[in-house]
Amino acid sequence: MDLNLSTKAKITWCPGCPDNAILVAFRETVTELVNAGSLKLENIVAMSGIGCHGKITDYLNMNTFTSLHGRLVPTMTGTKVANPALTVVGFSGDGDSYDEGLDHLIHAARRNSDINLFIHDNQVFALTTGQATPTSPKGFKGRSTPTGTIEEPFNPLLLMLSAGATFVARSYAPEIAKTKEIMKAAIAHKGFSFADIIQPCLTFNDTRDYYGKRIYWLDEKFPTNDVATATEKAREYGDPSTRSANSGQAGSGQDKIPFGIFYSVEKPAFEEQL
Amino acid sequence: MQREKYAVPLCYNFCMPELHRLHKEIHTVLIGGAAGDGVREAGISLGQLLAKVGYEVFASIDYPSLIRGGHNSCRVSFSKEKITSDYSNLDTVVALNEETVKLHMNELGENGVIFADSFEDEDKTKLGAHAVELPMSAFAKEINALPIMRNSTALGAVCYLLDLPLEMMIERLRIVFKEKVHEANITLAKMGYEFMEKLKFKHTKQIYREKIPDKKEFIEGNIAFAKGLVAAGPNFYISYPMTPSSSILHYLARNQTDLGIKVIQPENELAVINMALGMAYAGKRVAIGTAGGGFALMQEAFSLAGMAELPLVVALSQRQAPATGSPTHTAQGDLQFAIHAGHGEFPRIVLAPGDAEEAFECGAEALNLAWEHQLPVIVLLDKQLSESLSTAKLDAGKIKIENGEILHKVSGHYGRYAITESGVSPMVFPGTPGAVVKVSSYEHDEDGITTEDPKIVKAMGDKRFAKAKGIKKEMARNTAVKVYGDPKSKNVIVFWGSTKGAVLEAAKHLDKPAKLVQIVWLVPFDSKKVTEELEDAKKIIDVEANRMAQLASLIREKTGIAVSDKILRYDSVPFDTIELAEQLNAALK
Asked: N or C: which terminal CB in chain B sees fewer CB atoms within 10 Å?
């Protein structure tokens, strides 16, 4: 059944922007879950922070909360704690959650509230027209760093694994079917679910060619219940100890980049214990 | 850190003979010691006993920002009449360390008594018969009790001195201490009492007390606020610890199961307020608490509460500032900050209770106002109000829970921000079949979808401010401005917040009649009533615990009336009753 999940709002992302692909993946996820009877539409809340990703709430004909820049995660936690019957899904960006709201992200991982966070990781500030974020590669030339950034990017997956997240995944926005599967798995997972969705920015940081050549997907044989294995796998790309493989940087010697579900274990959720 | 002394430097009896006559009806006990000596607990036990036998009591706690050591003191003043502030002139001193003797001996009155384990020769000579060597530490050692329990000996001795029933103190100690240690504390209290009895020490002249006391609680301002809040049915209280707001967090956390609420302490103040807004969106009544610095961190989300029209109560307990300031000491420096909090323009309500009873009422009122008008409400407290204790009558019976306009089902299209005449749009919560509930930090249309259309931008701003009418009606139902003293007097003293206590107490010592005007509602401001009370005054004296006379500015802004005199205290010390009375008398001359 078509749920009519689109709104009157005109989509203002750049033509071809992979944000559209994330939107499609989520609408399909919701449609499938509702049609299968697993969820009721009125019990889903979609939230966003501020950035290009944040427009997504305007394009979803369902309960939404467009929060502040960086403050999405506590807002989601509040809603989930207030009404645990709701399924709370948050969309954020690398500027939103890795810069402005990084503290909340780490605490959400250790708190293990049953919320689902999808990061539109385009490795650049796009809405503010092209500045570096914490996942921009070292040397990234943006409008605020004309001679290139001097800071190293960090690896969001390693950070989340060490902070205690119980579901950690990486997806690639242009691959809608894969993103949809990860979204479904994240929503099905009880506890804090985190997915970094690499989302090439066609205007300020077009990484399609870079990722297209290197992407590979973890299959169902990959053991997702062991944090050491997950950590080792996450180190394959963006290893802080070698600094050899910076995100999205051509010529970094990086051959392959793993995508998929790295880690998924069950622990009691925050609101269950409250 | 040594606190400078602001008390009258010499025995006040000799300096202010005419004020002393009234002081006979008021007795003040100071318990002093190092942090960790149980000074606060001893003071509270004494205050509770005094309240129980029928006295009116006011107690304040002075302590530095550290865990062990440093000088702590608890001042307990009591009388047969309502007492709203304490006195620095002391009748009884319990010195749990040498420093207390040095710091407070000069504040001792004519018939004053000071208890200590021992005195230095020099002090003993100076104090003469006022000094009583009470072997508190030796008694504790004798029965193998912990040194901290020596204050129970002191309480026993004070009981004797004030002719209070020892059995009632024993009863208190039984409640206060865990079973393991209460026997030792009780034994020590008895030893203190009997020690005085054996000395055949003269009881301090007994202040008449009512035989059938009006049932009152001896309660801290913060706890009174929390109880008011609870009476209005909150689902959650969220807070990051910050003095002087923390005792609200501690009280609600400790009693959450009994009170049927949930208490959360997240990672920082930004998480606190954003979490709270997520809860309000899901339909839960929530309050948060912090001090000025924490509230400064919350500003963007406070503005979001205004934009998204989410009900929220903020308890803002002021302390000396700017920045970290003198964290455990008082000030009223955040009035203008609170009334202008958050970027952009949006309606809010700011209430400033002046004592425990008003803190209770405002706590309940704030939650109801937030929900009826779908906006953020600030209750402005300060260290002096938050952490001082007084006898108060709290009546939860008259409090009703008001939720405002909530729809549990919808037919047809639902827009969260539907334009209405009252400015209040019916609220629906996620989980309601057929309703799409969209809220946003962006300017939005009636459906909650982002807009940049100037017509809608204006219409939405107007919609939010259309609530002003309903809020004004609410203000008229409440007492936004209170008048005490002589309502006909052309001498007017104007004040807000905890300064109420100091002014009302000082008014007992005024040479000339004066009208006392307390502003409880800061936003909205009752310009009409304030104008009525002030316009015919010959003299208007503004009393505030800040440097910039922030209330005087607000009065001028809202009424055009300028105050003629200002008594401003911004050294982080609460107003002293007698000192304030002197200043007021000088201004009224």
From this structure: C
How many CB atoms are closer than 10 A to CB B97?
A: 18
Q: Which residue from A minimizes the CA distance to B261?
A: A274
Partner residue facing B274 (CB), from A9, A71, A82: A71
Domains and CATH numbers, chain A: 18-273 (3.40.50.970)
- Please identify among residues 279-298 of chain B the ones whose CB lies closer than 8 Å to any CB of chain A: 279-284, 286
Residues near B144 by Cβ (< 8 Å), separated by ≥ 6?
Answer: none
Q: Measure the CA–CA gap between A133 and A125, rounded to whole angstroms.
A: 6
pLDDT for B396 beyond 70: yes
Domain residues for B374?
220-398
Residues of A in contact with B442 (CB under 8 A): 66
pLDDT at B536: 97
Whole-number Å distance between alpha carbons of B112 and B29: 10
Write the CB contacts of B101 (distance below 8 Å, at least 6 apart in sequence).
B93, B95, B114, B116, B119, B120, B123
Encoded amino acid at B240, one letter: Y
In three-state secondary structure terms, B234 is coil
Does A138 contact chain B (CB < 8 Å)? no
Q: What is the pLDDT of residues B70-127, one digit of tens each?
A: 899 999 999 988 999 989 899 999 999 999 999 999 999 988 999 999 999 999 999 9
In this structure, the strands spanning A87-93 and A44-48 are parallel
Decide if pLDDT at B7 tops 90.
no
Is B301 within 8 Å of A71 when comparing Cβ atoms?
A: yes
Q: Is the CB of residue B429 less than 8 Å away from at least one CB of chain A?
A: yes
Instruction: Grade residue B190 by pLDDT with cuts at 50, 70 and 90.
Output: very high
Q: How far apart are CA B334 and CA B576, in angstroms?
A: 21
Q: Is A74 at the interface with chain B, CB within 8 A?
A: yes
Domain count of the fold of chain B:
3
Residues of chain A found within 8 Å of residue B268, distances taken between Cβ atoms? 103
Looking at the fold, whether B156 and B187 belong to one and the same domain comes out as yes
B449 at interface of A, judged by CB pairs closer than 8 A: yes
Q: How far apart are CA A99 and CA A78, in angstroms?
A: 21
- Domain annotation covers residue B435: no
pLDDT value of position A261: 98
Reported pTM: 0.95
Closest residue to B275, CB basis, from A61, A75, A85: A75
On whether any CB of chain B is under 8 Å from the CB of A33, the answer is: no
Q: Per-residue pLDDT tens for B193-230? A: 999 999 999 988 666 666 555 678 999 999 999 999 99
CATH at B540: 3.40.50.920
CATH number of the CATH domain containing B365: 3.40.50.970
Give the range among A38-47, B50-59, B67-76, B344-353 with minimum mean pLDDT: B67-76
Please indicate if any CB of chain A lies within 8 Å of the CB of B439: yes
